[in-house]
Amino acid sequence: MNYASLLLLLLQAIAPRTAQNPQTILPVQMGYRVSPDTVLIAQPFDLFIKVLAPKGVRFEFPLGPDTTTQNGVRPIELRGEKVVSMLGDTAVALYHLVAWEVGTRPLRFPDVRVTFEGQERRLSLGGASIFVKSVLPADSSLRIPKPARPLIVLPVINWLLWLGLLAAAIAAVLLWWAWRRYRNRPRPPVDPYVRAQQEFARIEARRLLEDGQSEEYFAAMVDVAREYLVARIPGVRRSDTSFELLRAMKPRDGIEAELPRLLERADLVKFARAEIGREEAREAGLALRAVVDHVEVRVNPESEVAKRIAAAKERAA
What's the confidence (pLDDT) of residue 138? Predict the structure, then answer.
């Protein structure tokens, strides 16, 4: 056997032992940081894990802390899910945690597993912990509790009284509604002649002539006469001027012939501020009342005034 064959056999014998040597250690570095390192109960904090390893290494971070309960409470709890990111040959894991017991609490995380070409290495976080401080004072015996509050005494509600008040309120509303309907009920129309006589009497009761208000007295009497003519004579409207009213009415002989002069005089008093004496206003008022009577007899021969005037004429004859 020559020297080359002997060297080949030697290399074949050594090579398997080198590949299967369990003592080969992966060049891996790991560090962690807890921020902040002191918290209150239920105050969130973060755990950062950083692993530096050669290219091609596979990392496996734990899902979270050990969930084994102590006295029915989980001392450390994960909020949400872990966040893992790669920066070149560096892996970083972030955990959002919260503590539920006071004192120094170990985080109790499973090991981080690193695998490369069939070799595995476990990295422990055994030294990671968080200090949870209490919110109680150093000496809780100095705290004096407030005295107990008295028992809440609920008032006894007199339902009969409230029901009586409610029934009275409903009855009052119904009475008000009935009174409103009664007050606003449609009333039978008033006969134009009767209404005119009522308005004449109301003007006389104001004693305008005695108070020196002859112009107002005369204008009011003319307005009552115009309203009567609007209601009795077809074609006469409230918006008619004196000329339009006379043209639609066509006054007859007798007292009706005085109507054009009375309306013209009224226009001067209303719109030109003409003055009128007390006696003249009184006579004009009597004439307007006579015009209303004459028109009523002409357009409604069966009216009471027509019968009264006819009886007066018979007595005079």
Answer: 64
